[in-house]
Amino acid sequence: MNENLAALIPELALLGAAVIGLLAGAWLPRNRQWIIAVLAAAAGATGLAATGIAMATSREQTVFSDAFAVDTATAVGRLTVLGALLLVITMSVESVRGHRRETEYWVLLLLTGAGNLALIGANDLLTLFAAYLLASIPAYPLTAFAKDEQGTEAVLKYYLMGVLLGTTMLAGTALLYAAGHSTHYRELQSTLPSAAYGLVAVGLVGVLSGILFKAGAVPAHFWVPDVADGAPAPIAAYVTTLPKVGGLIAGYRLLHQALPDSEVNWPLLLAVVAAVTMTLGNLAAFFQNSVRRLLAYSAISQVGYLLMALAVTTRTDLAQKSLLFYLAAYAVTNLGAFAVVTELPHARTLDAYRGLARSRPGLAAVLAVCLLGLVGTPPTGVFLGKLEIFSATVDGGYAWLAVLAVVNTVASLFYYLRWLAPVFITTQASAEAHAARGRWSAATAYTAAAASLTLGIGGGAVLPLATGPLLR
């Protein structure tokens, strides 16, 4: 048993900061609780530094009876989650400054971030389920943090669906254990091919249902629009971004490590789910007038593209590289768009952004970069991510799915332009709608947009970092 705690510094940094923050916050006066925000940011920065050192020294390993893997996928996933978490923290500063439950906000954010990190490296079904719970439970109170009517309705849908699919995931874990006599991926790889087909199929669908819930894919997507519309804007940004990173990398590792030789035709199942998810998300976004709901359905459609990599997990060597890069590019691009929404709290509809280029040209430029980036316009990171993931899909034998994805990409341009067109109309801007919240959200927006462009322009240097074998 390798009990090397140093391999888990990013996860331990977030958990340790959460515990210290909870204890310290109980004694700090309300006007000093910003210290916990600094502690949260320091924990994220510590995790990033530890991940960078591990990547530079190539310290790949499995720890704690091989239940957690530290390899290329874990490293890139950590960089994405921790970087995105820092953006969410900076985006949240004005929203919760001076709030009577400010400490609880930062602590819950750290805990759910740690859960997503645990999902990324989970190499065992029980570890996967524990990570699912850690990523989910703290996110529920964050969704209803404002304690208003919309937030309460949103968290109820989020919680009930999470409990339902979490229970289904646990049942699937039990069935796979019954079929393979183990919960460890390496052992399941050798035992599941000879197990009963029906037992493996039902068990796999059960486990995948929890992963699809975390990612916000069809048919586990119903909570996404309500949470994006009812939660505080930084939390809406969080739940439409970070759980996708943890859930999809966890799904990729499960399929690649435990079921490469299974008779269950899970690649076709995931290809169909990907096709339905991207199509439904785009169609539902077409005539949305709420900017948050538009971004929510956009997030659902983006999951469809990302699931294409999971469908060809064992069919091409390009799957891992394309998935990891796309996740990083999508994370910064989506957070950039939500940072603009956070900065303009009174602009809830598309029409409210009319004339933004005249009143706030910087934010208008960020919005243009991020929305066109979500379409897949060069030179943004999502463009290169889509190019890689479409190539992987064709190489994996699903050319029809790649063609459908291209059609959906072109169609998605319609609803993004519905938002962008009013932004550049030279009419008198609404002073109330364009009233800014503060500097931190704007800084987050500029940083995220710059990161999206950097990933697109410097993708040739970044892509090799996402190439490497998974550990068993």
Describe this entry's structure for a reader.
By secondary structure, the protein is mainly α. It has a domain at 265-472. The protein has 21 helices and 2 strands. It has helices at residues 9-25, 34-57, 72-96, 102-121, 125-136, 139-143, 149-180, 185-191, 197-215, 223-230, 233-239, 242-258, 266-285, 291-311, 318-343, 356-359, 361-375, 381-395, 399-423, 439-457, 459-462; strands at residues 61-63, 68-70. Strand 1 (61-63) and strand 2 form a beta hairpin. The radius of gyration is 21 Å and the shape is globular. The two termini are 14 Å apart. The mean pLDDT is 93.
Offer a few descriptive terms.
472 residues; mainly alpha; two-stranded antiparallel sheet; 21 helices; 2 strands; 1% strand; globular
Protein topology:
Layout: H1 9-25, H2 34-57, E1 61-63, E2 68-70, H3 72-96, H4 102-121, H5 125-136, H6 139-143, H7 149-180, H8 185-191, H9 197-215, H10 223-230, H11 233-239, H12 242-258, H13 266-285, H14 291-311, H15 318-343, H16 356-359, H17 361-375, H18 381-395, H19 399-423, H20 439-457, H21 459-462
Antiparallel strand pairs: 1-2
- The percent range for strand residues is under 5%
Q: In terms of structural class, how would the helical and strand content be classed?
A: mainly alpha
Largest sheet: 2 strands, antiparallel
Q: What is the spatial order of strands in the main beta sheet?
A: 1-2
**Tally of contiguous helical segments:** 21
Roughly how many Å apart are the termini?
14 Å
Cα-atom radius of gyration: 21 Å
Provide the succession of SSEs. HHEEHHHHHHHHHHHHHHHHHHH
Query: What share of the residues lie within helices?
Result: over 70%
Work out the number of β strands. Answer: 2
